[in-house]
Write a structure and sequence with these properties.
Length: 81
């Protein structure tokens, strides 16, 4: 939950639209509510829901990190590691 909250706060406005941000906030709220219970099945379901809702944001963050790491590097440098 913390990772999703942090990603949403730091990069959400830049990388995803309002509809996706709303879906992530909703999933976070539902997971918080579920975490207060002792129903492990419900908690697992809500964790998956948050994962699904935040997948695109995570992909966008990872894409940005990869592009930054590869910036100004030649293909031969990348292949060598």
């Amino acid at each position: 939950m913390r990772a999703a909250e942090k990603a949403l706060a730091e990069r959400g406005d830049q990388l995803i639209d309002e509809e996706e941000r709303t879906a992530i906030r909703s999933a976070l709220g539902e997971l918080r509510s579920a975490a207060a219970s002792e129903d492990h099945r419900l908690i697992r379901e809500k964790v998956k829901q948050l994962d699904d809702a935040s997948r695109h944001l995570a992909e966008e963050i990872m894409d940005g990190a990869v592009l930054a790491a590869l910036k100004d590097r030649k293909a031969s440098e990348v292949a060598e590691g």
